[in-house]
Amino acid sequence: MGTLIVRAIVLLSLPLIVFVLGGDLMLRLSDPGKLRDKIQAEKHLKGLGLRINGYDLAAVKTYWGALKDGEALDAERRMLEIDLVFPFFYGAAFAVALLFAWATLGRPFHPVWILAPLFIEVVADWTENLIQLSQLKLFNAGAALQPGSIQIASIATILKVWLFCVSYFLVMGLVGWMIFNNWPRSPAR
Question: How far apart (Å, rounded) are the C-alpha atoms in residues 13 and 11?
């Protein structure tokens, strides 16, 4: 029973630990001087990548316009570039947790049902970052941003955030099922 609880804790913790530590590492690598944090705190801005309600052209211009002070916009570009690699790490952590719990349950269904949301999440994250990088290049050059591309990036952001939650709820559900199936039962009298 103790091993079961330890497995459950590891499976529930793994994706969150990788996500939090990876996010912190990305921030440190992209913006060691914390310029972006200072600007966001002063102007009460929230990064584009975590907006669950999405964003539009005006929000992007406002956010990047505020970051244009100093090197903060360079930090944003570096963050977007690093974030192209990050989905491999959090995606792998989710896949390990999901597949381990699924295998422990005796592979009760095809794994595509638990991996599809994760795959879509990772693709949405890449889509968001690639579009933002291309639009940021236009912004830096003083060219007009493309509202359609910004809208696609916004939808990808919303999808990424919601599917992250779905993936974690899948982990919780499978771990709960794993615990229920493997919990010692008292003998019938």
Answer: 6
Q: Which tens digits make up the pLDDT trace of 105-127? A: 999 999 999 999 999 999 999 99
Tell me the CA distances in angstroms from 131 to 33, 35, 83, 112, 124, one per residue in order. 26, 23, 12, 27, 11
Distance CA 163, CA 97 (A): 16
Name the residue ranges covered by the structural domains of the chain. Answer: 2-180
Amino acid identity, position 72: A
> Which carries the bigger pLDDT value, residue 188 or residue 128?
128
- Nearest-angstrom CA–CA distance, 159 and 120: 8
1 — pLDDT class (breaks 50, 70, 90): low
Q: Is the pLDDT of residue 24 over 70?
A: yes
> Own/partner pairs for 63-71, CB < 8 Å, 24+ apart?
64/136, 64/139, 66/39, 66/40, 67/36, 67/39, 69/35, 69/39, 70/35, 71/33, 71/35
